[in-house]
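Record pair follows.
FIRST:
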Amino acid sequence: MIRYIILYCSTCAVCITMCYLDLFIDNINSILQLFLIHFFDFLSWIILTIGAIKCMPEKAYSNKRVWFYCAAMSGMLAAIKSFVKLIEILDT
C-alpha cells in the first residue's frame, strides 16, 4: 500500500511541476502544458484506483472493504473526469 501512496504523491508532484513548466522552458505551448498537467492528473487517479483495488481487504462484508470500494469508485469517476478533460485539451 505504501508504494501506491508514494507513486500517487510523486505523480501529483510532477503534475504540480508541470504547472510551473513555463518558468523553466521559454516559449512553451500552453496547450502542451495543459495536456501534461491533465495527463499526470489522470495518471495519479489511475494509480490511486489501482492501489485501492489491490489493497482491498479479503473479508467480504467488512467496514474497511466498503471504504476501499468507495475509494476505488470515486477514483474511477475522477479518472474518467480527468480523461474527458484530457480529450477536451486535444480537441482545441
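SECOND:
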Amino acid sequence: MELAPAQAEQRPAPQIPRDGWKDCAYNERTMGCVDERIPGGLEIRWQDGQRMTYREQPGSGEGGMDLLRDRLGGLWRRELFIQGNVVLTNTANGNRIFLPLRFPCRPPTKGEVGYCRY
C-alpha cells in the first residue's frame, strides 16, 4: 500500500521547549534559570528574580576548568562537562550551581524521545 503524498510528507511534530527556563540547581535545589555567555564571562538570571554576573579570571586550570569571580567578590571554579553541562563551585564555601546545556522539553510527542529540537 502506497501512502498518499500528504501522508508521506507528514513528520512528527518537533519537541518544543517546555518554557523559557532551564532546570538549573543551586546546592542541589532545582530552580529555573537562564545562563548567557557575555564578553569575558557569564550571566545567570534566576526564575525568582535574582541575577548574577561572573567574570573570567586569570589562572585557568586543566581539564575544562577555569575561574570566575562574581560581582560580590566570590571566586567560582567552572567545570565544563563533555555533554555541555556546566557546574560552578564556590572555592570558599563549596556552594554549587548546575547549568544544563539544554532547555527541558514539553512531554515528547508519540514516537519521540530525547532533547528538544530548535
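COMMENT: Residues 22-99 form one domain.
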